[in-house]
Amino acid sequence: MMKMRWLFALFALWIAGCGGADKGGDSGGATDTDGETHMTHTDMNTMDDAEIAAALWDEIQGYDSWGQTEGWGTEPVESGDHLGAYVVAYYNDALVNWSFSGEAPEGSISVKEGWVHEGSTGCNPCGTACNPCGTTGCNPCGTTCNPCGTTACSPCGTTGGDGELVIGNFTVMKKVPGYAPDDGDWFWAQYSVDGDVLEMGQPQMCVGCHAAAATDYVYGAPPE
Q: Which of 44, 52, 88, 103 is the most exposed place for a label (fewest CB within 10 A)?
């Protein structure tokens, strides 16, 4: 009988040890009530921009199951301001449940899919609004004046292929308290479909455009 009690006690201790690993353990971030793990602002403020961008890419996986504000759907809408001719936006719980009054909650994330015509390879035309430096000479692909930063982007959709629309890139913003107090504390990243970072940190193309939003750098409604 004593041996059985001793074995039972060992078994109980083993169960307790296994069951405690997921409670308050180091999971690399916090866990929402829906079971999703995300990076806290404390985590992100100890990282450089490249590390934040890498962590944010992992965090947005499965974004297409997130919510949307009124007016959005799964069909892309025309937009010349992002890295694609058309966009679709998704918001995590913190942002989709926000009242769009005051500051967005800590940890808010917006993901915009950038849709392009299959086969697009051209640069933006000289001297147009799609070529933001506005010089009289063409801004070559791969420069900061041609914001895609690649040789296969045409954000306004004025040049390039005429195939069906496909996702060509992602533009992501996340609210990280203390990251950039002068610009709403938003961290920005733009990715290729494979997760390669095209822009990160505080790209002026992103900050300058979203500074005109009515509330905290966030455009909730689709472009008109």
A: 103
| Three-point CA angle 105, 110, 111, nearest 5° | 160
Q: Are 199 and 191 within 8 A, CB to CB?
A: no
> For residues 91 and 72, is the Cβ–Cβ distance under 8 A?
no
Query: Which CATH number is 45-118+163-210's, of 3.50.50.60, 3.40.50.150, 3.30.70.1290, 3.50.70.20?
Result: 3.50.70.20
- Can you give the pTM of this predicted structure? 0.68
* CB of 98 closer than 8 Å to CB of 109: no
Which distant-in-sequence residues (6+ apart) come within 8 Å of 210 by Cβ? 173, 184, 186, 217, 218, 219
User: CB of 210 within 8 A of CB of 172?
Assistant: no
On whether the CB atoms of residues 171 and 190 are closer than 8 A, the answer is yes
Structure tokens at 102: 């005051």
The whole-number mean pLDDT for each consecutive block of 10 residues of the chain, a chain of 224 residues, reads 42 37 35 49 74 96 96 86 76 95 95 81 49 50 50 42 79 94 93 88 84 91 79
DSSP H helical ranges for the chain: 2-19, 41-44, 49-59, 93-96, 204-210
